[in-house]
Amino acid sequence: MFSAAPTPRRVLPPARAAAETDRTEATAGTSGGPEGAEPPSPKAGSRNPFFDNAKYLAIVLVAMGHSWEPLTDGSRAAEAFYMTVYTFHMPAFIIISGYFSRSFDMRKDRLQRLVTGVAVPYVLFETAYAFFKRWADNDPGQPISLLDPWFLTWFLIALFIWRLTTPLWQIVRWPIPLAVAIAVLASVSPDIGDDLDLQRVLQFLPFFVLGLSLRAEHFAMVQRRAVRIASVPLFAAALVMAYWAAPRMTSAWFYHRDSAQELGTTWWIGAVMTLALFGCSVVLTACFFSWVPTRRTWFTVLGAGTLYGYLLHGFLAKGSRFWGWFDDYAWLHTPLGEIAVTLIAGAVVTALCTPPVRKVFRFAMEPTMAWAFRKDPADTARARVSS
Q: How many helices (H) does the chain have, and how many strands (E)?
């Protein structure tokens, strides 16, 4: 599907790269470059295709992973694919989020974007999911609780917290080791509880901090042909390892939502597993990034709508379980059925990332909400002068 041969790339001067970071902090990406060079920059006002491609491919894997979950009990192969994909798909998203949060500070416009682009969608979808479960699962007692994220909304509250802490990570001397230490401590602390899904916030934190610490040249490094070639046996080894581990361990380790004690094991195993999974996730995420196209493709435009696909596909993912589709149709548990489920999941999430869907749901995902914020007196004065 992807060519292993390197494609011609333009070099981005360091000064221009710094300027691009501020302009594209929330949504754009960066493309891979030649060995030892920084990735190219798109023309002014355009998006970098590399990260849009990466986000689209990652959201497809997220949807496929959710479609495989009901199949894992009866299929060791499905469980192996499930574990392998869960090792890196959310870490890839979180690293991207961290990379484009590097310039975040407490400036008014950035705080407003954080509220409208993260906090508001969290409130709306947390509420919508609660009502959906009441109806689809015949569960009228399902509470609406902004303190207990349900299903996919944990990522929004986590991103809100991570981004607010960005200035702190920018000033500490060893941010990644510190974040890993916090993740390890969280994994052995059962008293953290479920409020705001803090276990996930803290256990996934190292990936966000890693993204904050990365630079353009790091993505250029993983785009080298040698890395692409090495990624093939590494992915193969990961699948073999997952196939071996499938009947021997629970996939709950990959969710990072529970402490070791809550998973029925001792604290030191939780610490070891956290470190081991972090290392495996970083390696497989690098392999994943090495195969992401750096040029514009037919799906590049869909990368701008991955949050739409992420949040909207959750209704179908959960609805399929509430309505018993995987129980009523036994053929879904055959090899051909598993392939069909995979393709359907990919097609559905692709459709949900398209511009028409984004246009319909922009009111919930990207509201402007100018009415909700105070006007800066300096802005008002400038507007009067210009008029």
A: 18, 0
Contact between 9 and 34 under an 8 Å Cβ cutoff? The reply is yes
Rounded to 10°, the helix 267-290/205-213 angle is 40
Helix ranges restricted to H, 246-303: 267-290
Long-range Cβ contacts of 57-60 (<8 Å, 24+ apart)? 57/288, 57/292, 57/299, 58/89, 58/92, 58/93, 58/96, 58/288, 58/306, 59/93, 59/306, 59/309, 59/310, 59/349, 59/353, 60/345, 60/346, 60/349, 60/350
pLDDT interval class at 384 (50, 70, 90): low
Cα–Cα distance, 255 to 65 (Å, whole number): 12
Residue 295 CA to residue 148 CA, distance in Å, equals 40
CA dist 211 and 38 (Å) reads 16
Please choose, from the candidates 318, 387, 315, 306, the residue with its C-alpha nearest in 3D space to the C-alpha of residue 354. Answer: 306
* Residue range 229-256, pLDDT digits in tens: 999 999 999 999 999 999 999 999 999 9
pLDDT, tens digit, for every residue of 104-159?
Answer: 988 999 999 999 999 999 999 999 999 999 999 999 988 888 999 999 999 999 99
